[in-house]
Amino acid sequence: MADAQGNKKAKDYHIETPPVQQGFFVKGAGNGDWGLKNRLSKIFNPDTGNTVMLAFDHGYIMGPTSGLERLDIEIPKLNPYVDVLMGTRGAIRTSIDPASSKPICLRGTHDDSVLKDDMTLGSGLGLGIEEIIRINAQMFAIQTFIGSDGERDSLEVLCRAVDSGCRYGIPILAVVAVGKQMARTTEFFLLATRLLAEHGAHAIKTYYCDDFEKVAAACPVPLIVAGGKKLPENEALSMVYKSIQSGARGVDMGRNIFQSISPVAMCKAIRKIVHEGITDKEAYEFFMEENK
Ligand code: 5RP
Fold it and tell me: 129 FRET partner, CA 20 to 30 A, in 9, 46, 93, 279?
């Protein structure tokens, strides 16, 4: 019902107070639309600016992977300890409870399988933006192959995803893949991350490298560090620590979590580095303590 009386009584206009400044905490997103910023605020914790993402999309190129044989059993155990779930639409639909409030980063590309021995040779867009909206995902992940044969196709896929993501306020995560024949040099990551940001990605998933602070400084959007092959837990925690210290805004890890001797303790230890700022040594002590 219209309330003409209430409107007449409104009087507290704070005339002397300047408008509250609407700064935004995610690097490079200050000029984005409200919906884009709202989704980014679900991916990156507004209190710390950082994120812990769990990658469990391995099956889309590797089939059943050690530690991920049963998505429906393994992922719900880890769900409470991470900020974001990164998976394929098949995994999300079949194995994640739709009542879960955890934000989803949906893998949006298809790539060559392990049988081809080098996934950087070919890929394409695996789903449309409607699927992101239907699943209610907060982020759209696009694999890219800078410097390898698949570069041109993957940049085309990225550009079209950025077009559709911007239309609906859905942030795009560009994922840097490193081909078999390519070296993980600082120069490569400087090039790849900057190039993907300039093609419109809102965040970049990349690998840790020497002089990572230069890579983070030169990239106008947040960097999220990938896990890669399983390392001993202390080394994986050191990589997380060095990444955050050098300017990464989070990690997106799979095998170093679900192939750990204690996946839940590993998640908790990673969170302590990413969100609480403890050192790698303290995190490893915490991990060992949790394992007793
Ligand atoms: C590969 C990826 C995938 O998300 C991948 O599955 C990451 O997981 P891990 O930490 O096990 O390497 O980004 O490019």
Answer: 46
The confidence score (pLDDT) of residue 185 equals: 96
- 58 CA distance to ligand 1 centroid (A)? 7
Cα(8) to ligand 1 centroid in Å equals: 59
Ligand 1 is surrounded, with C-beta below 6 A, by: 55, 57-58, 86, 175, 177, 205, 226-228, 253-256
List Cβ neighbours of 187 (8 Å cut-off, separation of 6 or more).
none
> In Å, what is the CA distance from 146 to each residue of 141, 182, 184, 250, 278?
15, 10, 12, 22, 34
Expressed in angstroms and rounded, the spacing between residue 99 Cα and the centre of ligand 1 is 25
Question: CATH number of the domain at 34-110+120-290, please?
Answer: 3.20.20.70
**If pLDDT is split at 50, 70 and 90, which confidence band does 4 have?**
low
Give the model confidence (pLDDT) of 71-89 as tens digits: 999 999 999 999 999 999 9
Domain residue ranges in the chain: 34-110+120-290
Residue 69 CB-density burial (10 A; 0-12 exposed, 13-18 middle, 19+ buried): exposed
Which listed residue (8, 205, 242, 268) is catalytic?
205
Sign of the Cα pseudo-torsion (58, 61, 65, 68, in order)? positive
pTM: 0.95
